[in-house]
Amino acid sequence: xxxxxxxxxxxxxxxxxxxxxxxxxxxxxxxxxxxxxxxxxxxxxxxxxxxxxxxxxxxxxxxxxxxxxxxxxxxxxxxxxxxxxxxxxxxxxxxxxxxxxxxxxxxxxxxxxxxxxxxxxxxxxxxxxxxxxxxxxxxxxxxxxxxxxxxxxxxxxxxxxxxxxxxxxxxxxxxxxxxxxxxxxxxxxxxxxxxxxxxxxxxxxxxxxxxxxxxxxxxxxxxxxxxxxxxxxxxxxxxxxxxxxxxxxxxxxxxxxxxxxxxxxxxxxxxxxxxxxxxxxxxxxxxxxxxxxxxxxxxxxxxxxxxxxxxxxxxxxxxxxxxxxxxxxxxxxxxxxxxxxxxxxxxxxxxxxxxxxxxxxxxxxxxxxxxxxxxxxxxxxxxxxxxxxxxxxxxxxxxxxxxxxxxxxxxxxxxxxxxxxxxxxxxxxxxxxxxxxx
Length: 438
Prior knowledge:
The longest helix is centred in the N-terminal third of the chain and has 15 residues. This protein has three domains: 95 residues, no CATH class; 227 residues, ANL, N-terminal domain (Rossmann fold, 3-Layer(aba) Sandwich), CATH 3.40.50.12780; 105 residues, 2-Layer Sandwich (GMP Synthetase, Chain A, domain 3). It has twelve helices and 24 strands. It has 438 residues and is of the alpha/beta class. The strands form seven sheets. The chain has a seven-stranded mixed β-sheet with strand order 6-5-7-8-9-10-11, with helices on both faces. Strands 12-13-16-15 form a four-stranded antiparallel β-sheet.
C-alpha cells in the first residue's frame, strides 16, 4: 500500500478482508452512501486465493487488517457525509464452489432506484426503529450484511457477538433480547443441540427469524417452528446475484418442501429442463464485473423484462410455489440418467434418525458416476446402512438410490451452511467407505 491512500470516488471498489465489527459495518454503510462499492471477502483466504479474487475485481483499495480498517474509517468520517441512503450494493463474490469467484456488480444506483431497493427490503421484512438484530454469520456474506444494513437503515440496533458459538449466541439472546435474526440451518442445529444440554432461552423477544443458504432438514424446520413464537419464522431462496422467493413457515407446512413464492416485484419461470429464471426490478439487476460473456449467459429477454438464472433447477406449481431440485453444477449423471442431489437429500432427510445428509457423485467405471450419500445420524437411534438402503428403496427410483453410504459425525460446510461436496469424495476423514448396491 502507498503511504497516501488513493482518493475514492463513486464507482470505485474497496476490498475488505477483515472480520465483521461495528467499525466494519459503519465503514460499509459510509462507502455505499458515497456510491463506493465495498467488496466483502473472507479474511481467512489464503494468499493465493486472495490474489486470484483481487485480480478479478481489481479494487482501488485493499483493507487487509484492523489498522487499515481504522485508517479507512477515519478517512471516511473526515471526508464523506454521514451514512445515509446507500447508492450502491456491495460487490459480493459468488461462491468458489462453482469455479473462479465472480464479482456481482450492480454499479451506482440513481437515488430513486436506491430508495426503491431499501423500501423493498423494509416492506418485506418489516425493519423498524426498535429492532435489535442478532448477527450469526460473517458479514462478508450477502444475506447477513443485507439484514444488518436493513436494520441500521430503519434506525434499529445491530448486535455482533463474534465468531459463531452456541453459548455466546444464547447469552446474547438473554442479554440483548433481539427481535430479528438471520441464520443458516447449521446454526439452528448447533443451537438446538446446545439448548438440549443447557435449556432453551426465552425466545419471546423474536418477531422475525429467517433462514436460508442451504436446505433445512425437516426435523430442524419443525423444531424451529415449535421453538420460536408463532408466525415469526421464514425461509427464503436466493443467491449472491439476487433474491427469488420468501416463505413463511406456515406456508411451508401447507406446501411441504417449498421455498416459497416469488418475492414482491419478481416473476419466476422454469424451462422444460427445470432451469429457474427470475425477472427482477431494474434496481436489482447486475453484471459480472469484467466478464461480459458470463453476464450475457446469465440473462435473457422475456415478455416481462430481462430475467437471470444462476443454474438452479426446480419446478413451480400451479399456485406459484417453488420446489428446488438442485444446481446444474451439482448434477449427477449416472447411466445416462440425471440425478439432482437436493431432491435425494430432501427424501433421505425424512428418514427417522437422520440428522443431516449430503448427496454427491463419485466416478464409476460402469455408470460414469454413482450416487453417494454422506449421512449424520442421531446418537443411539439412527438408522444403519441397511435401514437407509431400505428407506431409499421405498422412496426413491433406482437411479436416485445411493450406491455408496458414508457415515460422518458432521458434514463439511462453509460458514453459510453450504455443503462442501468436493470434500466428500474422496473421504476427507480417512474412514472406510460402505458400499451398498441399488
